[in-house]
Amino acid sequence: MDDFPRLSQLPSSLPELQESARVAGFTMSCEPRTGSLLATLAATRPGGRILELGTGVGEGTAWLLDGMNETATLVTVELDDAVQAVARDRFAEDGRVTFVTGDGGRWLERYDGAPFDLVFADTWPGKFTHLDAALGLVAPGGAYVVDDLTPLPGWPEGHGAAVTELLAALEGRSDFRTTRLTWSTGLLIAVRTDAATGVSP
């Protein structure tokens, strides 16, 4: 069964961003099935606050914005200015999104604002480094999502060990309820719970 998103569900900006990624040789964009899930999760948070760690050229950003309502907001962080410029140009008129260009780890260390209802960690900071900082920004009842957990031939050295360590850390926490999905590139969704009861507030 074909479980890819239907064409009618694709963000209108996606083909343009995919072509930009191809031209730039950028191969780390959000996979469409993951994007569809992100849009659905964003749609569950009317007026919600969303954080994306790793903008890339903006494919994940497009999915998140597509699912968000008009009062929701998105902060998206990317180290590579040239790559993120594609997303900034494409979404310059969308007042719901704020772009941060810089090291995600430093941003996580310094951020002192309100927590987020949905955190999508699609880069090393917030996933393989600075995990506690990222999880600390998830609001009660909020969700933390990571992808790229299924082994692939092109994984860089050390990626497999990092995934194993990440999964152990997440599944060992009493303040998050986790579900792994052997789907798309391999996903995990963790929802912040009341540690005493194990029930979302």
Structure description:
Its EC number is 2.1.1.-. Keywords: Methyltransferase, Transferase. This protein is of the alpha/beta class and 201 residues long. It contains 7 helices and 7 strands; from the N terminus they run H-H-E-H-E-H-E-H-E-H-E-H-E-E. Strands 3-2-1-4-5-7-6 form a 7-stranded mixed β-sheet, sandwiched between helices. The longest helix has 13 residues, at 159-171.
Please outline what is shown here:
This protein has helices at 14-24, 32-43, 59-67, 81-90, 104-110, 131-135, 159-171; strands at 49-53, 73-78, 97-101, 116-121, 138-146, 176-181, 187-192.
Helix and strand succession? HHEHEHEHEHEHEE
Q: Poorly predicted ranges (pLDDT <50, ≥5 residues)?
A: none
Shape: globular
Count every beta strand, where a strand is a DSSP E run of 2 or more residues. Answer: 7
Main sheet: strands, sense, barrel: 7 strands, mixed
Percent of residues in helices? 25-40%
Strand composition percent: 15-25%
Oligomer: single chain
Structural class based on helices, strands and sheet pairing: alpha/beta
| Mean residue pLDDT | 90
Radius of gyration: 16 Å
GO biological process, one term: methylation
GO molecular function, one term: methyltransferase activity
Enzyme class: transferase
EC number: 2.1.1.-
